[in-house]
């Protein structure tokens, strides 16, 4: 699948350590309204030190299903119940 985001592939994003280590799938994605930053998390509660900074391309290569969220506007978030599940998009 071709990189579908309008943001550059090297755009900095936040990913949690559980997703980064392959322990958990991405179940929560936010596109922050205040700064436009993307966050890709497992859906569990985290402390700040669980966050990792990686490129958007890295996350897309990890799980290309996030490509379906490429047009999600700032101020929205998406959740799904399991990997491969349908993303449900909501406004904050």
Tag the structure with descriptive keywords.
single chain, 92 residues, alpha+beta, 6-stranded mixed sheet, 2 helices, globular
What does this structure look like?
The chain is an alpha+beta fold and 92 residues long. The chain has a domain at 13-68. 12% of the residues lie in helices and 28% in strands. The chain is built from 2 helices and 6 strands, in the order E-H-E-E-E-H-E-E. A 6-stranded mixed sheet has the order 4-1-3-2-5-6. The longest helix is centred in the middle third of the chain and has 7 residues, at 56-62. The protein is globular, with a radius of gyration of 12 Å. It starts with 11 loop residues before the first strand and ends with a strand. The relative contact order is 0.27.
Write the layout of secondary structure elements.
Blueprint: E1 12-16, H1 17-20, E2 28-31, E3 38-41, E4 51-55, H2 56-62, E5 76-79, E6 88-91
Parallel strand pairs: 1-3
Antiparallel strand pairs: 1-4, 2-3, 2-5, 5-6
């Amino acid at each position: 699948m071709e990189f579908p985001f309008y943001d550059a592939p090297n755009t900095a994003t936040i990913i949690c350590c559980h997703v980064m280590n392959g322990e958990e799938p991405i179940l929560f994605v936010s596109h922050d309204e205040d700064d436009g930053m993307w966050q890709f998390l497992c859906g569990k509660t985290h402390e700040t030190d669980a966050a990792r900074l990686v490129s958007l391309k890295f996350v897309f290569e990890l799980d290309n299903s996030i490509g379906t969220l490429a047009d999600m506007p700032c101020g929205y978030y998406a959740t799904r119940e399991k990997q491969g599940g349908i993303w449900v998009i909501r406004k904050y």
